[in-house]
Design brief:
single chain; about 260 residues; alpha+beta; eight-stranded antiparallel β-sheet; two-stranded antiparallel ribbon; 12 strands; about 25% helix; globular
């Protein structure tokens, strides 16, 4: 009888804790009012890794966050559903109603290159396998016009085909989890790794950012499976698949930019 009471109490505590976390997460994004992604503290014992592309990692970690309590807004107006998946809203206005999941990943990569003056390195593949090069300079108008064109011609399918794969154990800041929409797999999705930290045992944790359909504010994802470690996700290098946000990805669906 005592064992039954203990188990019942433990289950009740879990339910109440989860309920409070969902309510809190829904009502209060960025609860500690961090200014940038890089301000989000790592779990105890972890330190941010040094990236092969240190400048790209620095750019993503410097992305500004909207103030505490900000909610994910749709491009067309109104609030997005499932606000509890939002840990913090990234303060980077959308360019069009076509800026969805794969587009957000391309946008962040393009913004980094544009802000670095590397205009000739800005290029993406369309769904037919053609390369779309940015032919402009530091004109913001030309840059945004180019991205809007890319959004209409690229997708999760083209992104997964364009980017080389990376093994989970080698994950770096800026990598992209992407599974492609294709026949028999109608909807695809993509999320970007915007930070990675590691402990002395080599175990990694990571942060994810996403956009979605319909177009909405890009945001840092909550880890709803582990609210006590949220927003950090723990990397299982031997996993065959992972549940990230409401979507799951196979181990071979981690990609990187060249």
């Amino acid at each position: 009888m005592k064992t039954f009471i203990k188990i019942t109490f433990a289950l009740l505590l879990i339910v109440v804790t989860a309920g409070l976390w969902l309510w809190f997460g829904y009502s209060y994004s960025n609860p500690h009012n961090y200014k940038t992604i890089g301000d989000i503290p790592t779990p105890m014992g972890y330190e941010r890794i040094k990236n092969d592309d240190a400048a790209f990692a620095d750019y993503l970690r410097s992305l500004p966050l909207k103030a505490r309590g900000s909610q994910v807004q749709l491009y067309t107006g109104g609030k997005a559903h499932l606000q509890f998946l939002n840990y913090a809203v990234i303060d980077l206005p959308l360019l069009s109603n076509a800026e969805q999941c794969a587009d957000v990943c391309m946008r962040l990569r393009a913004e980094y290159l544009y802000n670095s003056g590397r205009y000739g390195d800005i290029h993406f593949m369309d769904v037919n396998g053609n390369t779309m090069n940015y032919a402009g300079d530091n004109s913001r108008k030309a840059f945004e016009s180019y991205l809007k064109k890319v959004y209409g011609l690229a997708s999760t399918f083209s992104l997964s085909r364009e980017l080389p794969r990376r093994k989970l154990k080698d994950m770096q800041v800026g990598d992209v989890f992407v599974y492609a929409a294709r026949p028999g797999h109608k909807y695809g999705h993509a999320v970007m790794v915007v930070d990675v930290a590691q402990n002395s045992d080599g175990k990694k944790v990571f942060l994810l950012a996403e956009g979605n359909t319909p177009a909405r504010d890009m945001h840092v994802l909550s880890n709803w499976q582990n609210p006590f470690r949220s927003p950090w996700f723990t990397l299982d290098e031997d996993a065959e698949w992972m549940m990230l946000s409401p979507f799951h990805y196979n181990a071979d669906e981690l990609h990187h930019w060249e």
